[in-house]
Amino acid sequence: MTKNEVELFLEEKNIPYQTYEISKENIDTIEFPIFKTLVLKGNKTGPTIALVPLDSRLDYKKTAAVSKNRKIGLPPIEYVLEKTGYPHGANTPIGIFMHHPEYPILFDEMIKDYQNIIVSSGELGKSVLISVDDLIDLIQPAIADLTINKNDSHS
């Protein structure tokens, strides 16, 4: 399997990683926490990236406050592709950081509960296992509470 730009970038930076093929069929067998990359549109910042646990829901009010927006939300899929270069489902905090270091990138504070996590590597179904410390050192995100706490949820 050929390496993609995210994998090559990690190698260039001497950051160890492991490639994972993730599909609907095998996702329940993955032993590491998976974080999803959400591309948001803020009324002040424009494109804003949030990395949150796969099974969590983003709290828009918390995320807007942390990113210094009055309003923030999920934009149309066309906006995501235009602003990141990645199709829906393949957004990667590493690749977006490579191409758009000016975009605000936020990580949910739950990331600090883990040593290693899985994030997309920029291709549908292809991800990388990476050390949380390495990922934070590389991207220098704002880290804050971005998700709806289970006991806060009214749904």
TrEMBL record:
Domain YbaK/aminoacyl-tRNA synthetase-associated: 32-138
Pfam families per record: tRNA_edit
SUPFAM superfamilies, A to Z: YbaK/ProRS associated domain
Sample GO molecular function, one term: aminoacyl-tRNA deacylase activity
PANTHER family: CYS-TRNA(PRO)_CYS-TRNA(CYS) DEACYLASE YBAK, CYTOPLASMIC PROTEIN
Name of the protein described by the UniProt record: Cys-tRNA(Pro)/Cys-tRNA(Cys) deacylase
